[in-house]
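Subject: design request, 351 residues
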C-alpha cells in the first residue's frame, strides 16, 4: 500500500483524513459544540416559549428546554450520528442541567461524546396572557334566541361549542382565541373573545348546529399607529321554536321535530311530515309544549274518532283520532286546550 506523509506532523500513514493523519485529525476534530450556558424564555402562566421574537404555544417546560438545547447543539457536518440522547435535570423552575450523549461515526471510526449545559429559564408573561390579564377582546358574541329566552340546554350546548372551537383555533395558532370575560343572564350569554376570527368561526358553528342566524356590527374603538381598531359585536339569534313546540300553522297543528336551516315538523293529526322555511314558521301561532298539557280520560275509541272527557268541565268531547294514539279506553292522554279546540298530543316529545 502506498505510504503517505502527513503534512502537519510529518509521520507516515496509509490514509489521510481531511488531508492529515488520523492522530492530527482527531486532535483538531470537534464532534459537537454546545455553549455551557444557554437561556430560554417561557411564559409563567401558559408555558408558551419565546423564540426569534415570537411567542409559540407549548405546554411542557422540559420539552421546551430540550428543544432549545437541541437547537443550540452544533454537530460536525461529516459525522454520522448514531444516537443522540438528552438527560434533563430540573434544579429549579429557573435552572436546568442537561447532559447530551452523542454516539457517532466519522470516516467509519466510532466516536462518543458527552456534553453538559446549563439552561437558564426566564419566566415572563406572553403576549396572549398579558392580554387576557388586561381583559383584551376584539369581539363579543351575544347569544340570544328569537322572541324567547334560550333554554338551559341550548346555553350548555353553545358554551361547549364556544370552548371547543377556541381550543381548536388556539391549536391552529390563533393565540388570541381565548375568553377574556363572560356574562350570563336569563336572556342569554355574552362572550368576550380575544380574536374576531374566532368569533366568526364560533357563530358559524353554533348556527349550523342549532339553527338561527348571526349578525356582525363593528364599532371603531381606537386608532393605533394609524391603524383603525374595531370591536365587533356578533349577535347570534337562535330560532324562535325548539323541538317539541306545538304550533298552529296553515290550518294544521304541527309539532317541531328539528329546527336548523329549515323547520321539520310533524302534523299531529295525520302524521305527515311538514317542512317549512324558518321565515314562514316564525309566523305560526305557538300553542304550547308537553308541559302545558292536561290529562284527559279517553272514554271511547272509534274508527276515525275518539271521545275524551274535558278535564276542566268533565264534558265528553269527540275528536278526530290522532295517528299516534296507542292508549286504550279508560286511560289518560295528554291534551292541549286551545282556541282551536282540544288537541291530543303525543306522550313522548323526544325530538
Ligand atoms: Zn499528522
Ligand atoms: Zn402565556
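Subject: RE: design request

Done. Sequence follows.
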Amino acid at each position: 500500500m502506498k505510504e503517505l506523509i502527513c503534512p502537519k506532523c510529518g509521520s507516515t500513514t496509509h490514509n489521510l483524513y481531511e488531508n492529515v493523519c488520523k492522530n492530527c485529525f482527531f486532535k483538531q476534530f470537534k464532534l459537537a459544540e454546545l455553549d455551557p450556558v444557554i437561556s430560554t424564555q417561557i411564559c409563567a402562566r401558559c408555558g408558551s416559549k419565546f423564540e426569534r421574537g415570537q411567542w409559540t404555544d407549548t405546554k411542557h417546560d422540559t420539552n421546551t428546554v430540550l428543544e432549545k438545547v437541541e437547537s443550540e447543539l452544533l454537530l460536525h457536518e461529516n459525522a454520522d450520528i448514531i444516537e443522540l440522547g438528552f438527560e434533563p435535570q430540573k434544579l429549579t423552575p429557573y435552572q436546568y442541567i442537561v447532559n447530551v450523549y452523542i454516539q457517532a461515526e466519522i470516516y467509519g471510526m466510532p466516536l462518543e461524546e458527552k456534553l453538559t449545559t446549563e439552561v437558564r429559564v426566564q419566566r415572563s408573561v406572553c403576549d396572549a396572557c398579558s392580554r387576557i390579564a388586561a381583559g383584551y377582546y376584539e369581539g363579543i358574541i351575544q347569544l340570544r334566541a328569537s322572541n324567547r329566552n334560550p333554554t338551559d340546554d341550548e346555553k350548555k350546548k353553545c358554551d361547549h361549542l364556544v370552548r371547543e372551537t377556541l381550543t381548536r383555533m388556539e391549536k391552529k395558532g390563533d393565540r388570541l382565541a381565548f375568553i377574556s370575560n363572560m356574562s350570563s343572564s336569563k336572556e342569554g350569554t355574552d362572550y368576550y373573545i380575544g380574536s374576531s376570527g374566532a368569533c366568526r368561526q364560533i357563530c358559524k358553528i353554533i348556527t349550523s348546529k342549532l339553527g338561527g342566524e348571526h349578525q356582525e356590527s363593528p364599532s371603531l374603538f381606537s386608532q393605533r399607529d394609524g391603524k383603525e381598531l374595531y370591536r365587533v359585536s356578533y349577535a347570534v339569534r337562535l330560532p324562535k321554536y325548539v323541538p317539541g313546540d306545538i304550533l298552529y300553522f296553515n290550518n294544521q297543528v304541527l309539532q317541531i321535530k328539528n329546527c336548523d336551516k329549515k323547520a321539520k315538523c310533524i302534523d299531529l293529526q295525520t302524521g305527515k311530515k311538514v317542512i317549512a322555511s324558518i321565515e314562514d314558521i316564525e309566523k305560526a301561532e305557538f300553542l304550547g309544549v308537553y308541559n302545558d298539557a292536561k290529562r284527559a280520560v279517553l272514554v271511547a275509541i272509534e274508527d276515525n274518532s275518539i271521545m275524551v272527557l274535558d278535564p276542566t268541565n268533565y264534558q265528553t268531547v269527540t275528536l278526530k283520532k290522532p295517528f299516534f294514539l296507542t292508549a286504550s279506553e279508560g286511560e289518560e292522554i295528554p291534551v292541549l286546550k286551545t282556541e282551536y279546540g282540544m288537541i291530543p298530543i303525543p306522550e313522548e316529545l323526544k325530538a
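The CA atoms of residues 136 and 194 lie 6 Å apart.
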